[in-house]
Design brief:
OB_NMD3; 21% helix; protein transport; 12 helices; alpha+beta; 4 domains; five-stranded mixed β-sheet; 25 strands; six-stranded mixed β-sheet; Nuclear Transport Factor 2, Chain: A
Length: 504
C-alpha cells in the first residue's frame, strides 16, 4: 500500500511595519501604505489650483502662448488643455489616469481627478489620487477684441466699379454669402461706387482678393501703410490695402468694341450687348447671334465702355417680326448662340404712338417677341453718344435701335414673387428709390436667367401669401419651387416654453 502526502499550502511571509507594527507583505521600504503616505507626498510641486483664460464672446479657451480653442465641457480637448497647464510640474511622476469631476456649469470651476505614480524609498512604487481645480478667468481674445473695436483692422479690400448700375455688386454679394467669406470680416462698409471689407488678418484679406479674381473680371493693386516700427526687435506693423477695380460693364449694357478686339473674337460686330457678367464678360452680337467671352486681362488690354445705361433705355412696341433662318456667316466667324433666335423686327416708341415713325432692326430676342409685345432698347438714331470706338465706325454699320430685353409688368411680377435673397450686414445709409429700382432689376434678371440662378441661394419667402393667378398672364419668367431653399430659423426652447405658459 502506497501513501501519498498532501502538498503543503505555501503561506506568504509577512513583516511588521517599522512605524506602526501592522503585518504587511514585504516591500523595499518596510512600511505600510498609510505610513508611507505620511512620510512622502508624491504630488508635492504639482499645483492644486490653476487659472484658465476663457473668452465669453466666442466661448474659446486660451492655450498658451496665443492659441484659442473651442472646447466643450468634459471633452477630450478640454482635458488635454488642462493637462498641458500642469505638464511642466509632472516631469518626475508618471500619469496613470485623469478625468473630470462634476461641477456646476456656472461655478467658473473645473475639477479634474488625477492619478499618478512615483518610485520612492528603496524602489517602492507609490500611487496617489488628488484633485486639481481650474479657475476660469474671463479674457477677451484678439479676434473678439478687433470685432468689438471695429476700427482695429489689419487689411482692407476696397471693391470699386465705375458704373451707374449695381447689378454686378448685387450678384457679387450673393456669391460672398453663399461661400461665407464675409464671416471673417470685422466690418463691411458701403461707400460710393463700391464696398469696403475690413479684416483682422492679411490672410483673410488675401483670401477675399483671390475669390474676387476668380469670380468677376477685375484687376488689383496692393499698398502698405506703416503704422509702427520697433527699432530694437526690427519689427514693422503695416496696414494693407487691396484695391479691386471691376470692369465697368454690367448685364444688358450696349458696348462698342474696338476693331482689333472684334476681329479677334471671331469677326463679330463692334456693337454688341453684354448678356451676362460672371468670371468673364459674355457678349452677343444682335446681328449674327455670335457670342464671345472677354476675360479681365483681355479687357484691360483693349478696354471698352458702356454706350448707354439703364436710365437711357426706351420702351418700344413690336409692330412686326420675321424670324431669320439659315443665315450664313463669313469666314472666321465664332460660335453662335443656341439659346436665342435671330429675327428682324419693326418697332415703334410708345412715346411716339401718335406718329408714323417706326424703326427696323435685328435682334437676338426672336424667341421671345411677338407682335404687340413691349421691349426695352437703345435708340442710336436719336442719341448723342461720346465713345471713341463708335465715332470711328462707319455710320452704315451703326443700327438705328438695339433691343435689350422684353418688358413685363413690374408690379405684377413683384406681387407674384414668393422668394427672397439674403443680404450682408453692412454700414450704409438708407436705400434710395434708385437703389430699390436697381435691386428689382437684379431680381428680374435672376428670374430670366437660369444660368445666373445656379450660383445664388434663393430662399422661399414664408411671409409672402400666395397670389391667385391673374386672368391676363403676360408670360413673365419666374423661379420654381424646386430652386428655392428653406430659410433656417433657430428658436430658443425657453422662448417656446414661455410662449406656451402665456397661452395657458
Amino acid at each position: 500500500m502506497e501513501y501519498t502526502q498532501a502538498p503543503a499550502t505555501i503561506s506568504q511571509a509577512t513583516i511588521l511595519c517599522c512605524t506602526c507594527g501592522v503585518p504587511i507583505p514585504p516591500n523595499p521600504a518596510n512600511m505600510c501604505v498609510a505610513c508611507l503616505r505620511t512620510q512622502v507626498d508624491i504630488s508635492e510641486g504639482i499645483p492644486k489650483q490653476v487659472a484658465v483664460s476663457f473668452c465669453k464672446q466666442c466661448e474659446r479657451y486660451l492655450q498658451p502662448p496665443a492659441t484659442w480653442m473651442a472646447c466643450a465641457l468634459e471633452s477630450r480637448e478640454l482635458l488635454a488643455l488642462c493637462l498641458k497647464k500642469i505638464k511642466s510640474s509632472m516631469t518626475r511622476v508618471r500619469l496613470i489616469d485623469a478625468g473630470f469631476l462634476w461641477t456646476e456649469p456656472h461655478s467658473k470651476r473645473i475639477k479634474m481627478k488625477v492619478t499618478i505614480q512615483k518610485e520612492v524609498m528603496n524602489g517602492a512604487i507609490l500611487q496617489q489620487v488628488f484633485v486639481v481645480e481650474f479657475v476660469i478667468q474671463y479674457q477677451m481674445c484678439d479676434d473678439c477684441h478687433r470685432v468689438e473695436a471695429k476700427d482695429f483692422w489689419k487689411a482692407v479690400v476696397q471693391v470699386r466699379q465705375k458704373t451707374v448700375h449695381k447689378k454686378t455688386f448685387y450678384y457679387l454679394e450673393q456669391l460672398i454669402l453663399k461661400h461665407k467669406l464675409h464671416q471673417n470680416s470685422l466690418n463691411i462698409k458701403e461707400v460710393n461706387d463700391g464696398i469696403d471689407f475690413y479684416f483682422g488678418s492679411k490672410q483673410h484679406a488675401q483670401k477675399m482678393v483671390d475669390f474676387l479674381q476668380c469670380t468677376v473680371p477685375c484687376r488689383s493693386k496692393t499698398s502698405l501703410r506703416l503704422i509702427s516700427h520697433d527699432i530694437h526687435s526690427n519689427t514693422f506693423n503695416y496696414k494693407s490695402t487691396y484695391s479691386m477695380e471691376i470692369v465697368p460693364v454690367c448685364k444688358d449694357n450696349v458696348v462698342c468694341l474696338s476693331p482689333r478686339l472684334a476681329q479677334s473674337l471671331g469677326n463679330m460686330g463692334q456693337i454688341v450687348v453684354c448678356a451676362r457678367v460672371t468670371s468673364t464678360i459674355h457678349l452677343i452680337d444682335p446681328n449674327t447671334l455670335q457670342i464671345a467671352e472677354v476675360d479681365g486681362n483681355t479687357y484691360w488690354r483693349n478696354p471698352f465702355n458702356s454706350v448707354c445705361n439703364r436710365r437711357q433705355l426706351e420702351e418700344f412696341i413690336v409692330m412686326d417680326t420675321d424670324i431669320i433662318r439659315n443665315q450664313k456667316l463669313g469666314a472666321g466667324a465664332g460660335v453662335r448662340s443656341t439659346k436665342h433666335t435671330l429675327a428682324e423686327v419693326w418697332v415703334q416708341k410708345t412715346s411716339e404712338m401718335d406718329t408714323s415713325q417706326q424703326y427696323h432692326c435685328r435682334t437676338f430676342l426672336g424667341h421671345l417677341l411677338n407682335i404687340g409685345d413691349l421691349v426695352l432698347g437703345f435708340d442710336f438714331a436719336n442719341s448723342n453718344v461720346n465713345d471713341d470706338n463708335l465715332e470711328k465706325m462707319n455710320p452704315h454699320y451703326v443700327p438705328d435701335v438695339v433691343l435689350i430685353k422684353k418688358s413685363y409688368n413690374r408690379s405684377r411680377r413683384v406681387r407674384r414673387r414668393n422668394w427672397k435673397l439674403q443680404e450682408m450686414v453692412k454700414d450704409r445709409e438708407d436705400m434710395g428709390t434708385d437703389d430699390e429700382r436697381q435691386y428689382q432689376d437684379f431680381l428680374e434678371d435672376l428670374e430670366e436667367d437660369e444660368a445666373l440662378r445656379k450660383n445664388v441661394n434663393i430662399y422661399r419667402d414664408a411671409s409672402k401669401k400666395p397670389v391667385e393667378s391673374d386672368n391676363e398672364d403676360d408670360g413673365a419668367p419666374s423661379v420654381s419651387l424646386v430652386e428655392m431653399l428653406e430659410e433656417l430659423t433657430i428658436v430658443d426652447a425657453t422662448e417656446e416654453e414661455g410662449g406656451a405658459d402665456m397661452m395657458e
